Amino acid sequence: MNAIEFFSRHGSEIAEATLEHIWLVGATMLLSVAIGIPLGILVARRPWLSKPILGSANIAETIPSLALLGFLLPVPWLGARADRITITALTLYALLPIIRNTAAGITGVDPAVREAARGMGLTSRQILLKVELPLSISTILAGVRVATVLTIGVATIAAAVGAGGLGEFIFRGLAMVNNQLILAGAIPAAALALTADFLLSLLERRLRPAR
Amino acid sequence: MSIATNANTANEAIIEFRNAGYRLPDGQVLLKNVNLTVGRGETLVFLGRSGAGKTTALKLINRLIDPSEGEVRIEGRSTRDWDPIELRRHIGYVIQETGLFPHYTVEQNISLIPRLEKWPAARIGPRVQELLTLVGLDPAHFMERYPHELSGGQRQRVGVARALAADPPILLMDEPFGALDPLTRTEIRGEFQALQRRLGKTIVIVTHDTSEALLLGTRIGLVEAGELKGLYLAREFLRSNEPVASAYVAQLHALEVFEKDK
Ligand SMILES: Nc1ncnc2c1ncn2[C@@H]1O[C@H](COP(=O)(O)OP(=O)(O)OP(=O)(O)O)[C@@H](O)[C@H]1O
Ligand SMILES: [Mg+2]
Fold first, then answer.
1. Is A2 domain-assigned?
2. In-domain check, residue A85
């Protein structure tokens, strides 16, 4: 069976798996941005929290993905649905680059600019929203981009717990020693990663403040 | 707007240092036992060499730091009793490194505080134009530029315009003319003197240039190694024969001797 035949036969299946994959990654990114950016701000504002927060995110990063899914399986509410544990595990992986870049972006703001903002009578909330975040937005986005690309790859393990996604093909292909099946999962995943990387780097350049 | 007040009639203390000192958490003393008052409409110049503690003294005024000893009173109230935000909105601040917001245009930099203070838009636009003209920058030319598209001297002038934006009665300026060439500097000083008379603000300026201190100040405070070594009326300063003052005056005379030689 040649590639064209294969893809025409499995086309709708691949499309469906791709959509599932996008949903898993999208939900993960929303969650990790919603958690990671505030944590990054906290790290930048309270240096003594830097070690515990970055340390924990670092440890999460080192747990093998399959093992992490296994650990989450018995957790009551999470374990009840495959996509819940998958998104939780993926979020734990995605956090580190987002927290780290948010903190780096904010600490990297020119101290003279921050001093001027304080001296002019901006509240600390106004300094964050009007000065620090706008000036670090491209650094933060760089972190989101790294996390997104990482997540697209790691999300293939969702299939191991039955949460679907492009990993389905890879796992089936491995079991049946069928390279075409593996590629049917790997190629769209790689294409997704490249596309996300490209779009986010465009946005990043767009938002980089002039200096 | 306050009406311009002559320095001679100034008696109401707007800024007052009472035995004020500042030390770092590690115990290092940056400023000790400073006593002085600045009356309404007066211009006090802190003159002193690099690292003397001039910027530290300014930061005590707008409560960027709290004194570790004594107190600083603004309009009769200790800075500790002021809400820091309210106090800082009351005091324009031109910082030494200009600190313009790189992601804002000149117009946005200047209008930030008026916008935060919820001025009507119809009032903000003309105000920005007025301020740019005041500091000698053509509004049509500069409004839409970003700080990185300006020269160092132009940035400093935008810094001054920004500090004046919401018309604060007190103005702190940390070497506001440091990045200017001597010719423009002389020009701007002249404009600034006119401005001073017109606006009648209470001003504290930092410089390490003696002639600038004499030109702009109604009074001169000599700061050395964290101490206020002397406080002079500008016109008395030249005649002072105290050793600390004469060193600065000698710096001026060195220039005159050179001019005579030519
Ligand atoms: N946060 C700080 N930590 C440690 N040292 C400091 C700090 N702030 C100021 N200093 C030191 O305190 C002294 C006074 O500093 P300050 O900025 O007031 O000097 P200055 O008179 O404004 O000097 P310049 O003319 O160079 O701007 C300097 O020796 C400086 O190194
Ligand atoms: Mg200084």
1. no
2. yes
Distance CA B262, CA B242 (A): 30
| CA gap B71, B73 in Å, rounded | 6
Chain A residue numbers with beta carbons less than 8 Å from the beta carbon of B93 are: 116, 119-120
**Residue A40's CATH number:** 1.10.3720.10
> Is A196 contained in some domain?
yes
3-state SS record for B15-52: EEEEEEEEECCCCCEEEEEEEEEEECCCEEEEECCCCC
Q: How confident is the model at residue A73 (pLDDT cuts 50, 70, 90)?
A: confident
- Does B221 sit in the ligand 1 pocket, CB within 6 Å? no
Could you tell me which chain B residue has the CA closest to the CA of A124?
B85
- Write out pLDDT tens, residues A90-148: 999 999 999 999 999 999 999 999 999 999 999 999 999 999 999 999 999 999 999 99
Q: How far is the CA of B54 from the centre of ligand 2 (A)?
A: 6
* Closest atom of ligand 1 relative to the B53 alpha carbon: 18
| Per-residue model confidence (pLDDT) at position B93 | 95
HSE-up of B259 (CA within 13 Å, CB side)? Answer: 5
Nearest to A121 among B85, B98, B146 (CB): B85
Is A6 within the bounds of a domain?
A: no
Q: Is B148 on the interface with A (CB under 8 A)?
A: yes
Chosen for mutation from B88, B104, B105, B162 (greatest number of chain A CBs closer than 10 Å) is B88
The length of chain A in residues reads 211
Alpha-carbon distances, residue B17 vs A100, B25, B33, B129, B244 (angstroms): 43, 21, 9, 36, 21
Tell me how many domains chain A contains: 1
Query: Cβ of A95: how many Cβ atoms within 10 Å?
Result: 26
Q: Which residues contact A183 (CB under 8 A, 6 or more apart)?
A: A173
Residue-wise pLDDT tens digits, A151-209? 999 999 988 888 888 999 999 999 999 888 999 899 999 999 999 999 999 998 888 76
Look up the domain containing A27 and give its range: 13-207
Q: B54 CB under 6 A from ligand 1?
A: yes
Query: Interior CA angle at B44 toward B156 and B58, to 5°?
Result: 60
